[in-house]
């Protein structure tokens, strides 16, 4: 199958250079607002629709047709991205519009080469819309998706590494000071609290005083929680403790964690919570606990882009929520049921406590964080030594007996002995790292995440994932938002979901360990979420290959 490759942008014209200068003020304000550095921008590759495979656009305002099961996939392109900051007229000359998106199983993801998600469908509709309104013989306009870490979306936009941000962004004054928004595609959005099993009792929004709430620092939830907290303090109450969540965790991830009891509650957009509360039995929507009301969700663009703004305004007038098209997409992409289990449920916590000594012993022996290895054991078997798979894998770490007996591992009796099973799993992970993942430039966190991917999909597939990531212009040394995308292209979502779940369980075990340490020191935390979640930056992330699990992980 031919793969569409985006040509390099043309040299910047004088008018574009003037616009670039006008964008400099926006960049300065945005960087000050987000406390980020563009030098740390880890931009991923573009995803393009393949020429000749575009589906006909539905009539304006009509529901999009479901993609046939056997339809050819849209594939990833192989361009190198250069900064470019023009308006729609320049995009039409280039025949390309670049949309920055977060890599998310709701908004945008790739499964065996096929682009899926709410934004993938919106992008296809925009592509068809533009080609109908601005036709040029034999030169189709392409919408290209640029999967980008959520906390890097707006800096990338201002820097000219994309033309639009489609990320379910709420319009806020802070954001409007640095960028422009198109006509909202959803209005009257409320940000509400969702609670999980065992959450502290909340009867009114003021009961959040003194509670710890994990939200992405880049989100509007953080802005609105801070405003609510200031109001509570002015009324004599305690402030809300706003803890930064990992920027790799999307809203649906946080809701899964609440449902599973890993977090007591979260703040999310009500329209998302309504759908997920029907899917996640442990998630309770609290429409009476409103953090912010009257919000608007819109696509973002650079300042001084009047032509693009007018085009998007016209597009969303016929594709916004309330139209058949908008409503169909909103329903279609909020129904993923692969979710995290409750790693802190009573029975699971008891098993974890009973086995922690073994994870500490063999994690320390082979240079791994005991909590990370125990999180993998939970993903494999829910820490159940009696577990057997149809393929013959056994025990907590779900190893094949033949693998355990191999010269690389050399441990027998993994089916009846939990200790031998954990020992074999840790030794096999060490073998994978030493043999296939020994690049000196890798961060320790990514080395471990790669080891988990190899454990699940095999070391040969890991080599394919990293090679494909490099070919796509992604970073072959970083798992999240990079190699995980290549893995999804090659084997589908199983391996990315496997690694993602381990990371969530690791977060849960860290919170449990920190709570127990606080209790031992006489400083009790109100709930497991009182500990801070790891954040998305590799530089600031805790070292997951650390033989001393008692060392408190660093948080930024």
TrEMBL record:
In which broad location class does this protein mainly occur, judging by the first location in its UniProt entry? membrane
Keyword Transcription recorded = no
- Where composition is biased (Low complexity), the residues are 57-74
Q: How does it sit in the membrane?
A: Peripheral membrane protein
Fetch the InterPro entries from UniProt. Answer: Lysozyme-like_dom_sf, Solute-binding_3/MltF_N, Transglycosylase_SLT_dom_1
> Cellular component per GO?
cell outer membrane
Please state every residue range assigned to the domain named Solute-binding protein family 3/N-terminal.
96-337
* Protein localization: Cell outer membrane
Per its UniProt record, what Gene3D superfamilies does this chain match?
A: 1.10.530.10, Periplasmic binding protein-like II (3.40.190.10)
The cross-references to Pfam families, in alphabetical order and at most eight, read: SBP_bac_3 (PF00497), SLT (PF01464)
Which residues lie within the region annotated Disordered?
57-79, 517-556
What are the protein's UniProt keywords?
Answer: Cell outer membrane, Membrane
Where are the bilayer-spanning segments?
none
The UniProt similarity line reads: Belongs to the virb1 family. Belongs to the transglycosylase Slt family.
Q: What is this protein called?
A: Lytic transglycosylase F
Instruction: Look up and give the organism this protein is from.
Output: Phreatobacter stygius
């Amino acid at each position: 199958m031919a793969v569409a490759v985006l040509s390099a942008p043309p040299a910047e014209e004088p008018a574009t250079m003037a616009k670039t200068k006008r964008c400099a003020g926006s960049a300065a304000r945005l960087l000050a607002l987000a406390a980020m550095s563009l030098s740390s921008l880890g931009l991923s590759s573009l995803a393009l629709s393949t020429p000749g495979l575009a589906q006909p656009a539905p009539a304006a305002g009509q529901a999009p047709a479901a993609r046939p099961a056997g339809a050819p996939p849209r594939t990833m392109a192989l361009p190198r991205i250069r900064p470019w900051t023009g308006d729609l007229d320049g995009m039409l000359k280039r025949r390309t519009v670049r949309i920055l998106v977060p890599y998310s199983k709701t908004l945008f993801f790739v499964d065996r080469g096929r682009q899926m998600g709410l934004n993938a469908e919106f992008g296809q509709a925009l592509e068809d819309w533009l080609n109908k309104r601005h036709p040029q013989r034999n030169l189709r306009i392409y919408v290209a998706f640029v999967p980008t870490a959520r906390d890097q979306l707006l800096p990338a936009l201002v820097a000219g590494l994309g033309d639009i941000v489609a990320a379910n962004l709420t319009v806020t004054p802070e954001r409007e000071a640095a960028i422009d928004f198109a006509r909202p595609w959803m209005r009257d959005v409320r940000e509400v609290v969702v609670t999980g099993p065992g959450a502290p009792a909340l009867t009114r929004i003021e009961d959040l005083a003194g509670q710890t709430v994990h939200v992405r620092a880049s989100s509007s939830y953080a802005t609105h929680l801070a405003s609510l907290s200031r109001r509570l303090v002015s009324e004599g109450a305690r402030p809300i403790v706003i803890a930064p969540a990992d920027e790799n965790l999307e809203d649906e991830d946080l809701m899964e964690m609440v449902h599973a009891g890993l977090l007591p509650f979260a703040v999310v957009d009500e329209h998302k919570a309504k759908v997920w509360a029907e899917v996640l039995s442990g998630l309770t929507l609290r429409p009476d606990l409103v953090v912010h009301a009257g919000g608007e969700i819109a696509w973002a663009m650079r300042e001084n882009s009047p032509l693009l703004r007018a085009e998007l305004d016209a597009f969303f007038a016929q594709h916004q929520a309330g139209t058949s098209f908008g409503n169909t997409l909103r329903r279609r992409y909020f129904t993923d049921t692969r979710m995290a289990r409750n790693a802190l449920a009573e029975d699971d916590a008891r098993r974890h406590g009973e086995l922690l000594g073994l994870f500490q012993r063999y994690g320390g022996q082979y240079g791994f964080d005991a909590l990370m290895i125990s999180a993998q054991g939970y993903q494999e078997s829910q820490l159940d030594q009696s577990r057997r798979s149809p393929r013959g894998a056994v025990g907590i770490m779900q190893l094949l007996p033949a693998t355990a007996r191999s010269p690389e591992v050399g441990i027998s009796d993994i089916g009846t002995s939990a200790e031998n099973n954990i020992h074999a799993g840790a030794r096999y992970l060490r073998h994978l790292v030493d043999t296939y993942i020994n690049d000196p430039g890798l961060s320790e966190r990514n080395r471990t995440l790669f080891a988990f991917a190899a454990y699940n999909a095999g070391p040969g597939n890991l080599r394919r994932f990293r090679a494909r990531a490099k070919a796509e212009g992604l970073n072959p040394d970083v798992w999240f938002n990079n190699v995980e995308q290549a893995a999804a292209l090659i084997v589908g979502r199983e391996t990315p979901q496997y690694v993602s779940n381990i990371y969530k369980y690791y977060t849960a075990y860290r919170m449990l360990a920190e709570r127990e340490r606080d209790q031992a020191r006489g400083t009790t935390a109100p709930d497991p979420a009182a500990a801070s979640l790891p954040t998305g930056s590799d530089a600031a992330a805790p070292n997951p290959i650390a033989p001393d699990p008692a060392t408190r992980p660093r948080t930024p």
